[in-house]
Amino acid sequence: MNDFMKQLSLEGKVALVTGASYGIGFAIASAYAAAGATIVFNDIRQELVDKGLAAYEEKGIKAHGYVCDVTDEAQVETLVAKIEKEVGSIDILVNNAGIIKRIPMCEMTAEEFRQVIDVDLNAPFIVSKAVIPGMIKKGHGKIINICSMMSELGRETVSAYAAAKGGLKMLTRNIASEYGEFNIQCNGIGPGYIATPQTAPLREIQPDGSRHPFDQFIIAKTPAARWGVTEDLQGPAVFLASEASNFVNGHVLYVDGGILAYIGKQPK
Ligand code: NAP
Ligand code: GCO
Question: Is residue 161 among the annotated active site residues?
Fold first, then answer.
């Protein structure tokens, strides 16, 4: 491998990807393993961690999996200490774990709103805060926050999610501002509409066999005229975790097939 390409290698790095038993987190962690990193992930239930470990093993990846609810500061502190003891200090953190509740705002309870903010915004704060001291000690670190189209745009029924992902964009910029001098780069990835369990309800085939109206809407709003797949995120995620992005800081890289640049296909 020539010197330039070595910049994209993650050899010798320890990467923690939260909520990575499946979906986007699993794809990003798999790419990191292919780039040479040691993979650590957590999920909220042991059976999910076990499912994730089996899925990684099927791809020839020896991952380290832990049960941890990322909204619980004590659990996160215990997780980071365990990882540092059993695997090594964390070089790369991907705040991927997330939930969405699609409820019209005026029908959403304050508790439901808080639950989304807790996982999608408070948790990236909690996990980053737990990991940054070790990164400062090592003299380098990469934090990647999984943002969203909703970091820039709103739509019906996703008020809590948009508020959280908008806040996550600004948390990304603030971590970049506050810790850049310690050679820590904090950036975001803003996926477009990606085919995962989280968006499955938006892609359900209708009783008459037609595509879900939202599915057709997204195809018309996406220049690439397709839903993203988790593999579309792997290259950008490796770039932001590697030394090739050491002067990229506070940036949200939108991997959306062009949605944010496009007014949308006019109806025929
Ligand atoms: P997903 O399929 O729903 O997976 C989310 C993962 O996070 C699951 O493993 C989930 O575990 C875990 N998780 C949820 N709450 C947790 C908690 N409190 N502690 C630990 N783990 C927790 O979602 P995805 O589509 O892969 O999305 C991953 C990230 O990308 C999310 O932040 C999402 O907002 C973001 N995103 C997704 C899209 C998209 O189109 N799919 C687009 C833009 C951004 P459980 O199964 O136990 O809940
Ligand atoms: C929704 C979707 C989106 C995607 C993603 C887009 O209901 O609009 O779930 O929010 O998950 O965040 O970037």
Answer: yes
| pTM strictly above 0.90 | yes
pLDDT of 204-241, one tens digit each? 999 999 999 999 999 999 999 999 999 999 999 999 99
Q: How many domains does the chain have?
A: 1
Q: Is residue 147 part of a domain?
A: yes
Give the Cα separation of 240 and 77 in Å (integer): 25
CATH of the domain at 84: 3.40.50.720
Name which of 158, 144, 233, 249 is nearest 194 in CA terms.
Answer: 233
> Whose atoms come closest to the Cα of 155: which ligand?
2
Nearest CA to ligand 2 atom 10: 150
Is residue 59 domain-resident?
yes
| Domain of 178, in residue numbers | 3-194+229-261
In a domain, 213, yes or no: no
Query: What pLDDT digit, counting tens, does each position of 51-98 carry?
Result: 999 999 999 999 999 999 999 999 999 999 999 999 999 999 999 999
Q: Is 59 in the pocket of ligand 1 (CB under 6 A)?
A: no
Q: Which entry of 56, 161, 179, 254 is annotated as an active-site residue?
A: 161
The DSSP call for residue 213 is: H
| 100 CA closest ligand 2 atom index | 9
Q: Please give the number of the atom of ligand 1 that sits closest to the Cα of 48.
A: 47
Report yes or no on 237 lying in a domain.
yes
